[in-house]
Amino acid sequence: MNVISKSWVFSLRTVVLTALCLAFSAAQANAQSLLRDTEIEETLREFTDPILRAGGLIPSSVDIYIVNDPSLNAFVTRGQNIFLHSGLILEADTPNQLKGVIAHETGHITGGHIVRSDYGNRSAYGSILIAAGIGLAAILAGEGEAGALILGGSQQFGALEALSYSRVNESSADQYAFEYMDRTGQSGAGLIQFFEKFRAQEVLSQARRYPYFRGHPLSSDRIDALRERVRDSEHATSSDTPEELHKHKMMQAKLRGFLNGPAEVYSRFPLADESNPARYARAVANFKQADLRNALKEIDSLIAKEPENPYFHELKAQILYESGKGVDAIAPARRALELKPGSPLLEIALAQATLQTRDAGDYGKAEVLLKAALQEEPTNSYAWYLLADVYERQGNTSLAKYATAERFYAIGDVASARSFAQRAQEELSRELPQWRRASDIIVVSDTQLAKKRGRRRGPKPLVSFTSR
Ligand SMILES: [Zn+2]
């Protein structure tokens, strides 16, 4: 796992999202973060893409985000974004249960249940604000001109969107979920199991419910309707493949390693447990406790078992890098990328380690890797940060300023982005694409800043947001 955040010394790639909101929203949202991890994202895509296709959606146009939040929640926003809380991933006992929930959320997308709403009725969904911010940043950092166009002419991103939660929509999303699972030859039983597992929530007070069930009230009618369809399906008893079960376990182990306290990890995965998930979780827990020796012992044992697994090499590189052994991290980071070529997060990890040699001959290598990563992920603020560092070391201060402008832009700090873009422009040749891009940043930032000023003078919203 890798990093993008304020604390770059952290494990999972964490994007602090509050900054994104500032660009367009007067409301305050909790500092929530997104988790980035190539392996987990790949597993989730494998689970999700067939469901999306069954729903007539194009998988590449649907983004999946993992929210670092132990509560049980999943939601969708306009622009075809699916958000899964880490708590939901951890609470799903099987891939089938997780897929059931994903299929239900897909049903909300295909059913057109996402509507714009006014300020009322939204307090539980402060996180959607944040979510909308991601879409915004993604657009901004894509084609500058298109971004400017969309932004310039739209109030829509400032307006709030929400699912209109109604029993009708919930039942309809359930039916879609069943159909998508059925069409892909999978059982809808997981969704029922998942609902039943949390059926007790229904009798608890609203406040104590998991957020998912605040938005997805469960009624026996709903569960019964679903159960009936599942029972009649020829795929009722289809089960997850051993490979899927394994990936699910590894995903959960990795998340637990990074997100749970070491004591919890050791109690769930005692030393006697020599399974891959147990070793994986312990490797991370040891590393988090600065027990480098045992962290390496666990990860090396996994590499010995599966030398072709890119993510074991990736974790080893991360452990070394974040333990202050950046140069030692180069070899495993390179191996990870060899085994998973073109993966942006792995490219960034290798660039980051490569820069630790402080060898001027390596700057160019890091530059190539970072540019490749940014090609895939133009809003990756950490990649921009490293690229600015590379330019700085190469003595190319104008490009360093440009890259810094991009970095601030990616996190929604338009005031800083504008300032750096302007300073970059003063030094850059007009012929360069970076000059034009800096222009775009200035134009869009101005629009945003003007909007913000206008809003500050405007009337206060009737309802203030209290994020959960
Ligand atoms: Zn729902």
Briefly note the structural class of the backbone: alpha+beta
Ligand set? zinc ion
- Number of E-state strands: 7
Judging by the overall fold, what is the CATH architecture of the domain at 13-242?
Answer: 2-Layer Sandwich
User: Termini separation (Å)?
Assistant: 28 Å
Report the sheet with the most strands, covering strand number, pairing sense and barrel closure. 5 strands, mixed
Contiguous runs where pLDDT drops below 50 for at least 5 residues: 2-31, 117-164, 460-468
| Cα Rg | 23 Å
Overall geometry = globular
| Strand numbers in spatial order across the main sheet | 1-2-3-5-4
The CATH class of the domain at 13-242 turns out to be: Alpha Beta
| Average of pLDDT | 80
The helix-strand sequence is EHEHEEEHHEHHEHHHHHHHHHHHHHHHH
**CATH homologous superfamily placement of the domain at 13-242:** Metalloproteases ("zincins"), catalytic domain
The CATH topology of the domain at 13-242: Zincin-like
Residue share in β-strands: 5-15%
Description of the structure:
The protein has 468 residues and is of the alpha+beta class. It has a domain at 13-242: Metalloproteases ("zincins"), catalytic domain (Zincin-like, 2-Layer Sandwich), CATH 3.30.2010. It has 22 helices and 7 strands. Strands 1-2-3-5-4 form a 5-stranded mixed β-sheet, with helices on both faces. A two-stranded antiparallel sheet has the order 6-7. Helix 8 (189-197) packs antiparallel against helix 10 (220-232), helix 16 (326-339) runs antiparallel to helix 17 and helix 18 (360-376) packs antiparallel against helix 19. The radius of gyration is 23 Å and the shape is globular.
